[in-house]
Write a structure and sequence with these properties.
The complex is a heterodimer of chains A (about 170) and B (about 550). With about 170 residues, chain A is of the alpha/beta class. Chain A is built from 6 helices and 8 strands. In chain A, strand 1 and strand 2 (about 10) form a beta hairpin. In chain B, strand 11 (about 325) and strand 12 form a beta hairpin. The radius of gyration of chain B is 23 Å and the shape is globular. The chains are: A alpha/beta (about 170), B alpha+beta (about 550).
Chain lengths: ~170, ~550
């Protein structure tokens, strides 16, 4: 499954561990929330970065005390019609000011890229190679956005105000 | 009328090109049907019994004449020459070919019409009072706010994959024509003691398998905070709404399971985090949206012009005028409802020819504006009273002057088993038969206001729960069986109807309804007592006794 990071297909340095996979000596690891919460100090003490896979039905606020110490938060879309992780992503970025990698995992198709970028995701485990290759093109599909989110894109309402004021200058 | 600017146009065009790509990927096999399904639903495309069905949004029920002509064009070019107006200010085309859909959308985009989020588990078309902006006594035009919310809910990055569909309706009149109490969020525009605009917010209304009347979650939310308040409701729903069972996934179930107090506390807590954010709307933004609505330059006209007095001699004209013409906030003008319920025809259908002709009439007599109401009728919102006789003649020629608005033959019905893959029973033929039984205008008038709503399955697209008489078709041992309720209503006094007895077979439905009506005529205290009031006064029992005594 290709990883798109920073807008292009990239190598994934992280190895995913299950709840009971033995801990590797070194290297970057992604661990399930449950394992991370019960064993955070041990996991963080070793060499290599740590990321957490956070399920979409668990309150993201529980992760907040650890945000400064982890490199990746991976949120889950069990199917692409289950949109709970969009809310978690926005909360992480906009309320809890998380600035690390925010990864979308699960059933990820190109048709969600714009929504995910707007919600604050910056890396994507994409299901199909063709979709991963189409990332940049798809991400630029829209130039108009009606809602303010934490991604900083200017909203339609805002743009109209700017247009109004710039028109007003000459008159 | 709201006029799209370059920004709105760009977004709709971007959406069309995205959908074109998605259809291409489906046709090439790159997308599976399961993957494509969600994408097409987000663009209003269902797969029905015989073909794809295409549902197009008419936000808050307002159409310009070029838009109505574009709908006629789609009916003619891509469909079988007609369209079907729904109970949520949408129009449906029943015979669309998948490969042609992107072209149909592109044609509609040229006149600022889209089909975004007319189906799927997202925020649906924002609906409002079809008399918005012209109803006497209205607090202010709710369409300004409807448009603000339409924009905010369009392609929302957080709420496009909700547990289930989500519908918002807005009214600004005491008499609720937008059925806000049966919506996921109902907004009633009000003023506070300082004269500032805001909303009473209702939540958790809805029909379907488990019907609920919406409950007030907050008595006053200031206009500047309405987007953040809606966002707070949706964020709570997106996270906690049930996803394990499609029949328990609507917000009404979450509100019911948590209780309105706990639910409102959750929303309040979320809202406090986001209310002072960029979601706050200042007056300038509202003014900008308002400035893109155009209002007619009304003339100073007499209250009772000569043309109207002369035409009063014609009993057919008078019957139509008394039935279909309503007071306008400006003297000398009227609101004209156009019944799409001719005797013997499917409710809510209009042919391409009728749509084109109606667009011409709207240009001539209604400042180029048409409205669509949830009762599946149309309206011309600004007709000078002196033009009423001429308009009536023209409508009559088109078969659009049936004087049955709000009468027993003004039936709401879903497409039912004739089109819909979810249906268990036929709806349209029941409606057709009932209109024949009560075709006599004197009889219908004698009965007075009476709404019959028919659904062909438990999903309740025909709003049977809130019909004065509700008819629900179900399947029992391979047969269509119809359950009949009385006492429902969808307005400000919204209530769910009660069953009057065991289900009846297809062939018996019209007889039973005739008996219900006969019972009402015998039971009412005086001719002015409406059916719904008699039911309220007496309850179901006396009706049950009379209707089922001989069965």
């Amino acid at each position: 499954m290709p990883l798109v990071n920073g807008g292009k297909i990239a190598d994934d340095s992280f190895v995913k561990l299950a709840v009971d996979t033995p801990l590797p000596e070194g290297g970057d690891i992604l661990v399930p929330a449950e394992r991370f919460l019960s064993d955070a100090d041990v996991l963080l003490a070793r060499a290599g970065k740590v990321g957490v896979i956070w399920p979409n039905n668990r309150d993201i606020a529980e992760l907040v005390p650890h945000l400064g110490r982890i490199a990746v938060v991976a949120l889950v879309f069990p199917t692409f019609r289950d949109g709970r992780a969009y809310s978690q992503a926005r909360l992480l970025r906009e309320r809890y000011n998380y600035r690390g990698e925010l990864r979308a995992t699960g059933q990820i198709l190109r048709d969600q890229f714009v929504f995910m970028l707007r919600a604050g995701f910056d890396s994507f485990e994409v299901k199909k190679q063709a979709d991963a290759e189409a990332f940049m093109q798809t991400a630029k599909r829209y130039s108009v956005f009606y809602q303010p989110t934490g991604d900083g894109r200017i909203t339609a309402l805002h743009r109209r105000m700017q247009l109004r004021h710039s028109e007003g200058v000459g008159t | 009328m709201y006029a799209y600017d370059e920004i709105d146009r760009t977004l709709v065009n971007e959406r069309v090109s995205e959908f074109r790509d998605q259809v291409k990927r489906r046709l090439s096999g790159e997308l599976t049907e399961d993957e494509f399904k969600i994408l097409r639903l987000q663009n209003g495309v269902y797969l029905q019994l015989h073909a794809y069905m295409f549902r197009v949004a008419i936000p808050y029920g307002t159409l310009a004449t070029n838009q109505l002509r574009a709908l006629a064009h789609v009916a003619r070019k891509y469909d079988r020459g007609y369209g079907h107006f729904t109970t949520r200010q949408n129009i449906q085309f029943n015979w669309i070919k998948l490969a042609e859909l992107p072209d149909a959308l592109a044609d509609l985009a040229e006149v600022g019409i889209h089909a975004m989020q007319t189906s799927g588990n997202n925020m649906r078309n924002v609906t409002s009072d079809q008399w918005a902006g012209v109803a006497p006594g209205e607090i202010e035009d709710p369409r300004i706010w409807s448009e603000l919310i339409r924009q905010h809910t369009t392609l929302h990055p957080e709420f496009s994959f909700l547990p289930r569909k989500f519908k918002i309706a807005i009214t600004a009149s005491d008499h609720d024509r937008a059925a806000i109490k049966i919506h996921d969020i109902g907004l009633k525009l009000i003023k506070n003691e300082k004269g500032e605009t805001g909303f009473e917010v209702l939540v958790g209304g809805g029909l379907g398998r488990t019907p609920f009347i919406g409950k007030t979650i907050k008595h006053f939310v200031h206009g500047r905070d309405i987007l953040s308040y809606i966002e707070a409701i949706l964020r709570v729903y997106n996270q906690y709404g049930r996803r394990d069972n499609i029949y328990k996934a609507r917000i009404k179930i979450l509100v019911h399971e948590l209780g309105i107090e706990k639910f409102s506390r959750e929303v309040e807590e979320e809202w406090q985090h986001i209310r002072n954010s960029s979601l706050q709307i200042d007056d300038e933004v509202i003014e900008d949206i308002r400035s893109r609505f155009t209002y007619p330059s009304y003339e100073k006209l007499p209250h009772n012009p000569d043309e109207l007095r002369q035409a009063a001699a014609d009993p057919d004209f008078e019957a139509w005028r008394k039935n279909s013409v309503a007071p306008h906030k400006v003297q000398g003008y009227s609101i004209v409802t156009i019944s799409l319920k001719p005797i013997g025809a499917p409710p809510g259908d209009a042919t391409a020819e009728q749509m084109d002709a109606l667009a011409d009439l709207a240009d001539k007599y209604s400042f180029g504006e048409i409205r669509v109401g949830h009762e599946q009728n149309l309206a011309l919102p600004h007709v000078a009273k002196r033009d009423l006789p001429a308009l009536w003649k023209a409508l009559d020629k088109l078969g659009l002057a049936t004087p049955n608005v709000n009468l027993i033959t003004d039936i709401i019905a879903c497409p039912g088993l004739d089109y819909c893959s979810l249906a268990n029973a036929r709806s349209i033929p029941i409606a057709q038969e009932l209109t024949r039984r009560f075709a006599n205008h004197e009889l219908a008038n004698l009965i007075g206001r009476l709404h019959i709503n028919i659904s062909g399955c438990i999903n309740a697209c025909g709003h049977h729960h809130v019909g004065h008489i509700g008819i629900l078709g179900v399947e029992k041992n391979g047969e269509e069986v119809y359950q009949i309720t009385i006492g429902g209503r969808a307005d400000e006094g919204a209530a769910l109807g009660n069953l009057i007895g065991p289900g009846v077979k297809f062939d018996e439905v019209a007889d039973v309804i005739e008996d219900v009506v006969e019972a009402y005529l015998a039971l009412r205290e005086r001719p002015e007592e409406l059916f719904i009031d008699t039911v309220k006064r007496l309850g179901v029992e006396p009706f049950k006794e009379r209707v089922y005594a001989t069965r």
